Amino acid sequence: MRLLSALVFSVWCPVAALAQNAGDVVGPLIGSFAAGIFCAPEVVGTNAAPDTVAGVTNIIVGEPNFVSTGRTVPAVPGMGFGVKSRAKSAPLTFVTVVITHPPMGGGRVTSQSYTTNIGSEGSSLTMYQFDFDYELVEGPWSITAFDDDETLFRARFTVVSPQLVPELAGVCGYEDLLG
Question: Which residue, among 107, 111, 115, 109, has the nearest Cα to 99 in the 3D structure?
Answer without folding.
Answer: 111
